Amino acid sequence: MKERQLLGIHGLLPARVKTMKEQLFLCKLTVDNYTTATGKYLYLNDLMQRNEKLFYKLLTENIEQLLPIVYTPTVGLVCQRFGFLFRRPEGIFLNIYDKGNVQQILKNWPEKGVKVIVVTDGERILGLGDLGAHGMGIPVGKLSLYTALSGINPKACLPITLDCGTNNETLLNDPQYVGLREKRIGGERYEAFVDEFMEACVEEYGPNILIQFEDFGSHHAFKFLEKYRHKYCVFNDDLQGTAAVVLAGLMSSSRITGKKLSESKILFLGAGGAANGIASLLVMGMIRQGVSKEEAIGKIFLIDADGLVVNTRTKGDLIGPKKYYAKDLNEMDDLNAIVNNVKPNILIGVSTKGGAFTPKVLKSMAAISKRPVIFALSNPTNNAECTPQEAYQHTEGRCVYASGSPFKEVEYQGKTYKTGQGNNCYIFPGVGLGVMLSQMLHIPEEVFLIAADTIAENIKQEHLDKGSVYPPITDIYNMSGLIAEAIMKYAFEKNLAGINRPESIPDFIEKHQYSTSYEDALRPTWEIPPLDTKYDMEKWDPPKSFC
Known about the structure:
Blueprint: H1 2-7, H2 20-33, H3 37-50, H4 52-61, H5 63-70, H6 74-80, H7 82-85, E1 92-95, H8 102-106, E2 116-120, H9 137-150, E3 157-163, H10 169-172, H11 187-205, E4 210-213, H12 218-228, E5 234-236, H13 237-257, E6 266-269, H14 273-288, H15 293-298, E7 300-304, E8 307-308, H16 335-342, E9 346-349, H17 359-368, E10 373-376, H18 388-394, E11 400-403, E12 410-412, E13 415-417, E14 420-421, H19 428-438, H20 446-457, H21 461-465, H22 476-493, H23 505-511
Parallel strand pairs: 1-3, 2-3, 2-4, 4-5, 6-7, 6-9, 9-10, 10-11, 11-14
Antiparallel strand pairs: 7-8, 12-13
Helix pairs in contact: 3-4, 4-9, 9-19, 13-14, 13-20, 16-17, 19-22, 20-22, 22-23
């Protein structure tokens, strides 16, 4: 009440002063009363705009329920309807006609202490394709998870969309589309625009600004990662984050199957950016277990839209990273025939083809392996290659299953399974926190091995017994702290850090994490004075953050 008087808002609020706990109760009740996922998303988005701390407190305390709302699968629906749902700016839209003025436009963002940027060009949003400027929902959602799941201050986070047009005819003809209404611009002009964007970010925010690429087309995702990774502090979550979470899940699966990764044969349905990113990290993981690079590559098989990737194919191409995994086998395009020919014990779906793992395919996997590993990772939910119920039913309950989207508990022959979700949110918040706090200038691939190791090491037997190869979603905040600690130790050991090593890394991390508790309204960055202190308002010089 004293704060209300000093701020000049006494009378503008009702008499009762509610505690955080009481406000959370009302917010939770309100969310539960919305009957659609989109309605819940819009309410939460509005809450984030008007009361940031309350939003993040609600999200962190109800993460298992609200994660599917603020991110997949609901964020996919939001991106599809973004023009209709758009209410207020939540990031920066840079269009290709801004070339030459990118840094000046970045200055329009009100927060100057930006440490983490998530950027997309909207060309491949989840499994939904080219959504152009409507892909902004992805950076906004990712950055809210950076705060909720690792404690990075939201003021340090900046979502950006690079609008280069779209090839989606539906959007081009949609009066609600908010982006450039023209075909996607590519080639040298596009690449020069991205080059300027990267340079402008460093000029504006410093050389250790962390830039996370999201949902670029596969052909650009690999190209930009290789082009920028040794020049900027950058990573691609679709390639490296996905790879790390899959590696963590497969390492956990080994405790169930009794078969090491290096002893496995792995078949991917899908040969795009995600598949190649996962395959690359799996090769590194196998090499650590004692096999050569050539042996590791020989254990990985890819299927693209034209069938099994083989050296003598007459249809399809061998362009990009997938050529390294091409085999000297006959051409085949039927998944079940390929499964029976290759005889994998691990089947990974990154195809965006819902239902691609048919009962016949699942039964073939069960015939090949006593404990087949089935990862149906495509998002959103209706793009999953199979559901957990289908996987257990057609493998006689013997499979080890994980999905990319959340599924409810399932029952098979009297046993309840709570399957794991191979969600990148296990990886990128902790990686971002560790990289940001250690002020690394570049992100070596070993960072993602460290993140995968940390997740796999902290999965408990009780979770494996329930069918999950990942810790509970509610443990991600703690996992992020452990990942950040491991990455910071690595950075100091390899002389990659831009700061001196603190006496206690865990204490250092905790000190720099965002607090969801209310602070003193008058002096948010000062020491909180005793209650009987009399403010001299004539001499009071409020901090800039208050102004």
